[in-house]
Design brief:
- With 313 residues, the chain is α/β, with parallel strands linked by helices.
- It folds into 2 domains: 187 residues, NAD(P)-binding Rossmann-like Domain (Rossmann fold, 3-Layer(aba) Sandwich), CATH 3.40.50; 86 residues, UDP-galactose 4-epimerase, domain 1.
- The chain is 41% helix and 15% strand.
- It has 10 helices and 12 strands.
- The strands form 5 sheets. It has a 4-stranded parallel sheet with strand order 3-4-5-10, with helices on both faces. The chain has a two-stranded parallel ribbon with strand order 1-2.
- Helix 5 links the parallel strand 4 and strand 5.
- Helix 1 crosses helix 7, helix 4 packs parallel to helix 5 and helix 6 packs across helix 8.
- The protein is globular and about 60 Å long.
- The structure holds nicotinamide-adenine-dinucleotide.
- Nicotinamide-adenine-dinucleotide binds next to helix 1, helix 4 and strand 4.
- The site of nicotinamide-adenine-dinucleotide (NAD) has 26 residues, from helix 1, helix 4 and strand 4.
């Protein structure tokens, strides 16, 4: 489990251990919020090809590649060179090492950032609509390149490659502060920090449309896809579309606060994302957590982090 010092990888490692797998996790850092559930945790910089080989020593049936230098829109727009360099090195070296180690199944975490910008209300994009390609940012271009690299290695070396394009994912133990946090965690933090009746800042006019996937749903989708025969990159997400203003309203309702929004300039990203989940649903996937339920599980965790940080100040 590469990248298991991070948010999704830590959750996925925990689920695989619960399901009875023997799991080795690898990351450049230990998990921040809870001890790793894996049987073995190796600290390794996966930009380095030798390190990729080292974490596979002993022999593995499956590799899940979730390590990436990444964050929300603020990070994606300010760290283009780091994203292009670090992620391409991690991805190419990890699939190369997996081929050399004769791994039979390789999962790669791509993103819906590989899709072009959309107008609000446009019909859903399917996986094939990724081409002709026009991702909105360099993070999306790198993901698209790495999807292709993983598939090329799969063809050459007979590895069953499985590629998921994740929608924005949220839940407890996700980055919630420091500049890499994504919108759901950022909004939870801002709402937790203000008093009832207070004001929070939101980038843009709040009309941009998104859908957000609760981490347990994403883990379900990853495991279904990896166990399936489906070779094409596959969207995994929740079909509940909301504006950023509606996301704020949902978080405020869960927090039991009235919150006013101050709209400020900032890196909003695409205007809309609206893509099909039909392929993953055909494999039996169905998102179990509507936004309200997922936020009800996430907000208390973020609020507890905010309170703990306040007490140590
Ligand atoms: P995360 O930042 O919490 O986890 C990524 C992990 O990769 C971190 O623990 C980090 O330390 C590790 N890493 C970075 N550079 C490394 C290196 N050189 N060597 C070893 N480890 C390194 O992110 P996440 O949200 O858990 O995302 C996991 C994967 O899913 C990433 O590939 C990401 O691009 C993709 N993804 C996430 C989302 C989302 O909303 N969270 C959406 C689309 C795609």
């Amino acid at each position: 489990m590469c990248g298991a010092g991070g948010f999704i990888g830590a959750h996925l490692a925990r689920r695989l251990v619960e399901d009875g797998y023997w799991v080795r996790s690898a990351d450049i850092k230990e998990p921040e919020f809870a001890p790793s559930a894996a049987h073995d945790f190796v600290v390794a910089d996966l930009r380095d090809r030798d390190e990729c080989g080292r974490v596979l020593e002993g022999g593995f049936d499956e590799v899940y590649q979730l390590a990436a230098d990444m964050g929300g829109m603020g990070f994606i727009h300010s760290a283009e060179c780091e994203i292009m360099r670090n992620n391409v090195l991690i991805n190419i070296n990890m699939i190369d090492a997996a081929a050399a180690a004769k791994v039979s199944r390789f999962f790669y975490s791509s993103s819906v950032c590989i899709y072009r910008d959309m107008a609000i209300g446009e019909p859903e994009l399917t996986e094939e609509d990724a081409y002709p390609a026009m991702p909105d940012n360099e993070y999306g271009w790198e993901k698209l390149y790495s999807e292709r690299a993983v598939m090329a290695y799969g063809r050459r070396h007979g590895i069953a490659t499985r590629i998921a394009r994740f929608q924005t994912t949220y839940g407890p133990e996700g980055t919630w502060t420091g500049g890499r946090e994504k919108a759901p965690a950022a909004i939870c933090r801002k709402v937790a920090e203000v008093d009832d009746g207070g004001e929070i800042e939101v980038w843009g006019d709040g009309s941009a449309v998104r859908s957000y996937t609760y981490v347990d749903d994403l883990v379900d989708g990853i495991l279904l896809l990896t166990a399936s025969d489906r070779e094409e990159p596959t969207n995994i997400g929740n079909p509940e579309y909301v504006s950023v203003n509606e996301l704020v309203a949902t978080v405020a309702a869960v927090a039991g606060k009235t919150v006013r929004i101050s709209h400020i300039d900032g890196p909003v990203g695409v205007q809309s994302r609206n893509f099909s989940n039909a392929a993953i649903e055909q494999l039996g996937f169905s998102a179990r957590f509507p936004l309200r339920d997922g936020i009800a599980r996430t907000y208390p965790w973020v609020a507890a982090q905010v309170e703990a940080a306040r007490l140590t100040r």
